[in-house]
Fold this protein.
Amino acid sequence: MSGTVVSDPNRPNVSAWRALRTETAASLVDTRLQVHHAAQLATALGISYLPKQPDDSHTNLMWIDALSALVSNPVRNDADIRVGVTIAPFAVLVIANDGPRANLSLDGRTIAEAADWVRQHVATLGLDPTKYTLEKHYEIPAHPVDNGGRFDASDADAFNELASWYSDASIILEEFVAKMRHAAPVRCWPHHFDIATIIEFAPGKTVSLGMEPGDVYYNEPYYYASTYPRPRADVARPSLAGNGMWHAHEWIGAVLPASAVGDEKQREQIEAFVDSALTATMGLLRS
């Protein structure tokens, strides 16, 4: 993987749209959980070596499409050091300055083995390996790899499909960030594992716009827009474009589940949903 350049640390290289096989979306649960756990290897770099930020931004990850990877914030030493996890192929990598220095396939390996490998390689770049820790201040959904189980990347199609959801979400969200004032950089948050931006509508009022690869509410990827503060339940909510719908269980927001995305003109459909969801949620903040 050497020679692949990671350019602007604040903006990823975004590639072409990847056609989504939405009929497989509900079968991605195990793949999503494995990648969620593996991504903590990248987040651990920020937790271990970067100053703690009030908004937890030291833990977040960016999508680098050229690598098909979720990559940590840089730790500056003799080189800008980052750790990433590629989804397809499923691997952990150490990046320094201009690109990957080393990568390790995660298939058949444990989290502990992968963490030891990261320690060895960040040590060669001047970091104290004893500081690298997988301890974190939040919980993520359980999976056998928690307890010493080995990663299993044998379902290559599922890993490729999950990578497509992150890649396409990066395209959609970067597009909206580019034209919205007061929009935060697009990042993946290691707790919920969504890739998202936050748009400040007014002081103390924000819209979160993102793609969640699946959770306790939906066992499939979905796009969403939600507000802070939470809108009143009795306020009328407008219809949404792109086959979107309103979610009202425990939180209120606009959603577009994978099962509602068609086979044709997927990008146009998702863009239409996101545009209408953003308009609708901003309207709720005005209510």
Notes: The helical segments are 29-49, 111-124, 156-179, 266-286. Residues 24-147 form one domain. Confidence is low (pLDDT under 50) at residues 1-11.
